[in-house]
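Table S2 (text version). Query chain:
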Amino acid sequence: MSGTEQLKSYLPGYYGGIVEMDELMNSEGPEFDLLGARVEELLNQAYPEYATWALDRYENELQIVVDSNKPDEQRRSVIISKMRGYGKVSGDMIKNVAQAYDGGTVDVAVVPAEYRIIITFVDTLGIPANLDDLKQAIEDLKPAHMALDYKYRYLLIREIHNVMTINQIQQHKLTDFAPFLD
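Corresponding structure-token output:
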């Protein structure tokens, strides 16, 4: 329901058909619609998942280098990851941070005997787009004595042969098949 219709619904019935009231409601209704849209936009800025113009504020508050050339989705993932990365470092925390960047399923294995953390991208094919930011966030988060290993997923012949059509194969990027291609 538009703002004009909503305003008219609040009026008593005897105002129906009065030209002056119709004109007043027709002029004020769009202003209420605009006000509602602006309030909704402002509320969206309170949540990094939906923020647009407030991303700079989140980045400054979390001491993240502001790079407005990056897509908003990548900037959001850095912000959300940084927000999730507070507290005692654990495999679950690293997993939460990594999933915030990747957007897919990530497995994290901590091997204390080898001083190693292994991050495996389960859903994402190839190298994730936001990998450099993820590496930096995990590097800032993890204990200094632990090494990081990243494992990527690529399409295997058994996933393609007699399973995918040529059209399905052509919809994939080359980097989904081969780790040496950029």
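Notes on Table S2: The mean pLDDT is 84. The beta strands are 106-111, 116-125, 147-153.
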